[in-house]
Design a protein that fits this description.
92 residues, mainly alpha, 2 helices, rod-shaped
Length: 92
C-alpha cells in the first residue's frame, strides 16, 4: 500500500470548477510540454499482401538416384515385356 501513496499524491489531472461546480469561462492553462506528448497515436496501416514467388526446389543427388533407379526398373520391365511380345510373335 505504501508504494501507491506516491501515486495518490502526484497531481495527474487538473479539475477547474468554481463554487457552483461549473467551468469558468476565463480559464487558461499554459502547458510547456511539446504537442507530440499529447498527440493521438497514428492509425494502424494495413499491410499489403506480398506476392509469394515460387522458388525452384533443390534437386538432391539422392532424388536423382532414386528417379534413375525407378526409370531403369520401368525401362527394364518394358524391355522384358517387349522381348516376351517378340518371342510370342515368333512362335506362330
Amino acid at each position: 500500500m505504501l508504494n501507491f501513496i506516491s501515486l495518490a499524491l502526484t497531481p495527474t489531472t487538473l479539475i477547474a470548477v468554481n463554487q457552483k461546480l461549473k467551468v469558468p469561462k476565463s480559464f487558461k492553462i499554459t502547458v510547456k510540454a511539446t504537442p507530440s506528448t499529447y498527440k493521438y497515436p497514428e492509425l494502424m496501416k494495413k499491410k499489403e499482401e506480398k506476392v509469394i514467388e515460387k522458388v525452384e526446389t533443390a534437386v538432391l543427388s539422392t532424388t536423382v538416384k532414386v528417379k534413375a533407379r525407378a526409370d531403369r526398373k520401368t525401362k527394364g520391365a518394358d524391355v522384358e515385356m517387349s522381348a516376351i511380345d517378340e518371342n510370342a510373335q515368333d512362335k506362330p
